[in-house]
Amino acid sequence: MTTSEVAQALTTATGEDRWVDPRLAELARRAAARGTVLLSNDGALPLATDQPVAVFGRVQVDWFSVGYGSGGDVNAPYTTTLLDSLEELGAAVDPELAATYRRWCAAQEPPVEEWGNWPRFYPEMELDDAVVTATAARAATAVLVIGRAAGEDRENVLEPGSYYLTAAERRLLAQVTGSFERTVVVVNSGNVMDLSWAAEAGVSALVLAWPGGMEGGRALAQVLTGVLEPGGRLTDTIARSYEHYPSAPFFGGKEFNNYAEDVFVGYRYFETLAPDTVLYPFGHGLGYTTIDLEPTGLRHDTETATVSLRATNTGQRPGSTVVQVYRGTPGTPGTPGTPGTPGGPVLPRPARELVAFTRTTELAPGAAEDLEVTFPLDRLASFDDSGATGHKDAWVIEPGTYPVHVGASVRDTAEAGRLEFADLVVVEQLAEALAPDPAHPFERMTLAPGADGPVVGWEPVPTSTVDLRARILDHLPEPITPTGTGGTTLDDVAEGRATLEDLVAQLSVDELAELSYGHVEMNSPLGAPGNAGAFGGLIEQLRARGIPPVITTDGPSGIRLSAWASLLPCGTALASTWDPPLLEQIAALHGAEMIRKGSDVLLAPGMNIHRDPLCGRNFEYYSEDPLVTGLCAAAVVRGIQSQGVAACPKHLACNNQETERIYNDSRVSARALREIYLRGFRICVQTAAPRTIMTSYNKINGQWAHYNYDLVTTILRGEWGYTGMVMTDWWMRYAPDPLFPALRDSATRVRAGVDVLMPGGRTWDSTRAEGHDDAVLSGYDPQDTSGEHLTLGEIQRTALNVLRMAASTRALHRARQQAERQAERAEQAER
Ligand code: BGC
Question: Where's the Fibronectin type III-like domain (predicted)?
């Protein structure tokens, strides 16, 4: 097959195909509604559709359906706006005001900007006071929409128009709240922004409408009018002001970023050390009814604990809620988690940690449901990176009594019972890995005893004592003895006639090395136009063995191609549903769309932790909490992969800011890595087995993720048992190997266990001449058995991972079908 024949065969998407599976659109709308968070409501919502409502703010027309960059750049076949959708539902929207906004917006189209310069907000239309008061004479209720967007390479900033309101928005807010009986404010944003103004302005209801994809406007209209309930619960804490976030003093560093708040991220910090600085707590969100959650028991066996409870709808409307289960900390009441207090643990621990959650079914008014929520006891464990418990580098459950709380947010809970541990339990003893570089020590947050409970203390972060060079040399993989040429194909492997090892033994070193590079460009001619890149069977010799090119596409909110594709609710919207089964259903339909469009690997889900509200890509990610992140990602991966195509969770790990993301060094303790930043990935890997994973651009404790042996080989593959393929984020940084002078660039990458450079093959480093990256071959020396050079076993290991992935995807099926079709055609031609 020539390259163009492959392209011809594999290009299934055409620019004209606008068809969207109606089941996917329906579920996307339900998810967008279920992810909408009602933060406060004095009864103004739901709107009565027969009562006039005046809608203010240009975002009602210029709606933000998604954020910017690779995670947002989807050719949606359609989008929906709030104004159109309210009218579509028959809401009594004030026609005069609506016409004014439509006219003005048509004349002031939002600017289309270059990559990384996208608008964070759209300038607001100024209205005369007389217009507002005249409108208020026609309607008692106003809805005011405020919109924000950020994205890849586009951080939020502490400026009006990003984290803060603009002067025009403030003026409009004052005009509307001053004239209307009730003002409902909708914030349509992918990020948490400052919300302190809402209470000051006396708004009647405040709604967070995350970018909800193509059905987002329609979903919100249905929520506002009560067709659907606002089902969302916060997956992040909203602080009273930005300065209250524990990451605030450290976020945004250009060269490096000390994760000094350590495990005290989000509610783990706020609930333990600064409860008064919280505006809306983690897990908070209202529905249109009230559901009482009453714990009825707690039991456990040696592996799991089960909370039982009764959920009763005590309100007037049908509705559901999220049941959240948190562990408390042993210690003196009032001084949770203070090391050194009587009965307190040795390790400083957040006062609350989420250990499980579920959703009730929809309950009719007065109806009740008995529920059980089971969680593994190891969710009570902490990671000891200092040896304070006597078990360095182990997950341990310290002795003591652990209260288990159940409720509707981290604050709104009742105790379900207590779990007693008489002795310390070592859940898992690991080897030290990925600790901070002793050359860059820093102080990390801990708990110190205070008069009224714990206060912030600081302690030196434990730094690395590992001889990484020796670790790598001790674990070099055994080579598979080359057998020279033979005719084994990937089909032979897939059908059990040969093993992957047989195939690898027949490949030349050049062919093996080829497998570790993607196609040199994005938009590979081997795949559907607009793809993100290809890997696998990129050269004729490999394709002759039935190894197909594997086509990747972005991303978390939809398939990014030069073709129409469904635009789904963003990651934060999906997570705010707290409904992994719903996410899995959506992802399965999305996987089916991948097959129709010609995508083998979706570069999703985005799994980085919401460490700070200013991170531009937070909309793609799920939460400040790793359990929410891990369970949502696992559901998405399972759904996508149920169709035979592959997911690619990203970015492993600590891509928590966009500022200098490709050079920045995330300096973070081994404990915070295990408990916060890696934990979601671990859950996803161990419960959903993604076929690929993408490393991040940034460094972690001094080494880029794509060169990071401890991250990829010691932890991901060794500790978690990952057997899939690992790829870089797009165009890794080039650098000499710090430990092996004969190696650099892709040789270091392959040694670390990162299988494929994406898109691949080319050196983009300004300090080096542009050209083909041949570091794998130039780093290989068949005569050298010392390990100073790349070994055959390492190059083969990479090839095995790539081939295993290729064999397991739809690409193989598609290539097979293609061959069958060709054979048929040839037969017909002969006849
Ligand atoms: C992003 C990835 C994305 C890739 C391909 C990179 O810039 O960080 O998330 O998948 O580009 O578009």
Answer: 321-410
CB-CB contact of 623 with 576 (8 Å): no
Q: Decide whether any atom of ligand 1 lies within 6 Å of the 658 Cβ.
A: no
Whether residues 727 and 666 fall in one domain: yes
C-beta of 671 in contact with ligand 1 (< 6 A): no
Asked if 291 and 206 sit in the same domain, the reply is no
Coil, strand or helix: which one is 785?
Answer: coil
The residue out of 429, 463, 497 marking a domain boundary is: 429
Which residue's structure tokens are 């542009």? 770
Q: Is the CB of 692 under 6 A from ligand 1?
A: no
Using one digit for the tens of pLDDT, what is the confidence trace for 288-301?
999 999 999 999 99
CA 581 to ligand 1 centroid distance, Å: 27
Distance in angstroms (rounded) separating the CA atoms of residues 242 and 643: 42
Catalytic pick among 262, 385, 600, 729 = 729
Per-residue pLDDT tens for 668-691? 999 999 999 999 999 999 999 999
User: What pLDDT is attached to residue 771?
Assistant: 57
In a domain, 174, yes or no: yes
Say if CB 11 and CB 548 are below 8 A apart.
no
C-beta separation of 57 from 191 below 8 A: no
Give the pLDDT band of residue 334 (cuts 50, 70, 90).
Answer: very low
Determine if ligand 1 sits within 6 Å of the CB of residue 729.
yes
- Angle separating helix axes 129-138 and 95-107, nearest 10 degrees: 140
The pair of three-digit structure tokens given for residue 40, joined into one six-digit string:
């406060």
Higher pLDDT, 16 or 708: 708
pLDDT value at residue 332: 52
532 lines ligand 1 (CB under 6 A): yes
Please count the structural domains in the chain: 3
On the question of pLDDT at 533 being above 70, the answer is yes
Q: Would you call 62 a catalytic residue per the annotation? A: no
The full DSSP string for 398-466 is -SEEEEEEEESSSSSEEEEEEEEESS-EEEEE----SPPPTTS--EEEEEEEETTEEEEEEEEPP----
Q: What is the per-residue pLDDT for 15?
A: 43
Residue of 601, 729, 733, 757 to test ligand 1 pocket, by largest number of atoms within 8 Å of CB: 729
For residue 661, the ligand 1 atom closest to its alpha carbon is: 8
291 and 224 assigned to the same domain:
no
Banded model confidence at residue 331, pLDDT cuts 50, 70, 90: confident
Structural domain span for residue 358: 282-429
Summarised one tens digit per residue, pLDDT across range 202-239 is 999 999 999 999 999 999 999 999 999 999 999 999 99
b (16+ CB within 10 A) / e for 561-593? bebbbbbbbbbbbbbbbbbbebbbbbbbbbbbb
Q: Kindly report the backbone phi and psi dihedral angles of residue 370, in degrees, each rounded to the nearest multiple of 5, phi listed first.
A: -95, 130
